[in-house]
Sequence to fold (195 residues):
Amino acid sequence: MNKQKALIIIKPDGVQRGLIGKITTRFEQVGLKIIGLKFEWATEEKIIAHYPETDTWFKKVGERTLTNYAKKGLDAKKVFGTDDAIKIGKTVKKWLINYLQESPVFIMAVEGYECIEIVRKLSGNTIPVLANPGTIRGDFSHDSIDLANEQNRPLRNIIHASDTVEDGEKEVSLWFEKDELFDYERADEKIMFPS
Ligand code: GDP
Fold:
């Protein structure tokens, strides 16, 4: 019964709109254990290291735009000068560096059984207009992919939440030193994980 770790970042739009408390509550009340918390100005180096510098990641991001544009009959070449998913993904990564440095970010490491599934469920779709009501992105943001692209900026979608078990481990150790992480037992864990 392995517990998983996930990194949550309340991005500058969430911080500037005063949503830190409301968002943190959602992760706490579902039963995930907060094992680390801090507020910091993200450096360019850390943001570059945080989002994978791989064609797989660039392609995933670029294809999000291409799929959305295909549905709406829009031409990616008009904004990006290309319809190559990898090149579009690289452009979005550059935009993310500015976005994540607009203000300090609030960072949280959480832990729990099936933690990754839960943090992604609570976060909602990456594209706010597609995020369901009840999710953090669905309740607190309404950005659209073509609007964001036209304005040469990333989707303003309030939070980052680790997407895979491997990313969760990697991201928590990128943003937190070992002595900033806390090992303790929450009351409800005694029932879920009897020793
Ligand atoms: P996440 O795990 O849901 O945050 O999604 P990704 O890791 O794929 O993307 C990282 C971030 O880049 C997203 O949270 C958005 O802020 C932004 N983003 C992703 N895809 C696009 C896109 O196609 N266009 C724009 N403008 N921003 C995007």
About this structure: The chain has a mean pLDDT of 96.
